[in-house]
Write a structure and sequence with these properties.
single chain; mainly alpha; protein transport; membrane; Protein-export membrane protein SecG; transmembrane helix
């Protein structure tokens, strides 16, 4: 299995986790954080606020995904040696030039 394939699998896992974390949140302040004891106070038993955890996990997963995408780009560019045909004159096939013979002229004076 190539390095790029490993990065691709990790990107898919992080994307799935990111979708789950975002879907748990509610844009109006509800969601998972409101079901654990109300509006904006501290949680019972000293547990951190759920909304802070979801916010931090969203940013962490997004940062991890960005880093994985950038690193995978390095490995995909290293594995394939694609060269531009624009700058490589030997890679461009020569266009055959066909010359049409000049039409035979007949001299009307003959």
């Amino acid at each position: 299995m190539s390095t790029f394939t490993i990065f691709l699998i990790l990107i898919m896992i992080v994307a799935f986790l990111l979708v789950i974390v975002i879907m748990v949140q509610n844009p109006k302040g509800g969601g998972l954080s409101s079901s654990f004891g109300g509006g904006g106070g501290a949680q019972i038993g000293g547990v951190q606020k759920t909304s802070d955890f979801l916010d931090k996990s969203t940013w962490t997963l997004a940062t991890i995904m960005l880093a994985l995408i950038l690193f995978s780009n390095v490995f995909i560019m290293g594995s394939n040696t694609v060269q531009s045909k624009t700058f490589d004159e030997s890679a461009v096939p020569a266009v055959p030039t066909t010359q049409t013979p000049a039409p035979a002229t007949t001299d009307p004076a003959e």
